[in-house]
From TrEMBL:
This is Gnk2-homologous domain-containing protein. Its main location: other. The lineage of its organism: Eukaryota, Viridiplantae, Streptophyta, Embryophyta, Tracheophyta. The chain crosses the membrane at residues 251-271. Belongs to the cysteine-rich repeat secretory protein family. Plasmodesmata-located proteins (PDLD) subfamily. It comes from Arachis hypogaea. The keyword Membrane applies. It comes from the Eukaryota. Pfam families: Stress-antifung (PF01657). It is found in: Cell junction, Plasmodesma; Cell membrane.
Amino acid sequence: MAPSLSLLSLIVFSLSLQLLPSSSYSVPVDTFVYGGCTQQRYNPTSPYESNLNSLLGSLVNSATFSAYNNLTVLSSSQSAVAYGLYQCRGDLAMQDCASCVARAVSRAGELCPGACGGAVQLDGCFVKYDNVAFVGVEDKSVVLRKCGSHSAGYDPEAVLVGLAGSGGYFRVGGSGRLKGVAQCTGDLSAAECQDCVGEAVRRLRSDCAASDYGDMFLGKCYARFSTGGAHGGYYNSKAHGRSDNEGEKTFAIIIGLLAGVALLIIFLAFLRRICEGQGIFQFFFFFSLLYLDFK
Ligand SMILES: *[C@@H]1O[C@H](CO)[C@@H](O)[C@H](O)[C@H]1NC(C)=O
């Protein structure tokens, strides 16, 4: 009887894993990647400050219905004009995009108080603002370059070729254990995006050869690859649907154990009825049901 009980618990446990809400991806949308601020500062209570605040508020609002937008808050004085854009990773659900942009904007506020311009990249979105026009301008300067261990022995070439080949503003690919993702900001033209991703991939190829991960963030695009382990898993793909989230796993294990205990109690109550002489027939009936269900 003990083996069939542990089999039952196992089945209940795996069922409870599958019943977990599949919308809650483990992808670390809000993970901080980089941030930067301009040297130039504005005076508190200047018109620029209130324009910037309304710009940032509008960016957050816009992210509830669009994965990309650019905004300009005009002013009679050129020094008070505020420009901004955000770009969510192409696979984010709208509510994740909105919460990511809100997080990035508040992060920029912490990072760049009083600075005219700032940029924050989280795993799931990018936000940039300034009082100098930058929207629609391709920018291939390296903002962040990070490679994993060069002795990891991976060959990212197939993934990189996949990312650099033609594609849209959001690209994913994979080969073996390596997964890759690339994203352009929506203000680039298709040709500029292709050029920018090509540059990021070229740099990854030369800088992060044999690494288990590589991050190349340029001004208006990025390309990354990883094994999808501790460092990676930064994009949603259907094949990646299972949660890696430890909290959810713990929750599922607890539910599984509780269900196992409940089944044990029911089973013991059932056994007690049998032992009280309710008949050996029911006993066999129960096991034939088990056999039919789980064989
Ligand atoms: C900026 O936003 C405006 C209004 O939504 C849009 O018409 C324009 O194409 C955008 N420009 C760029 C470069 O994305």
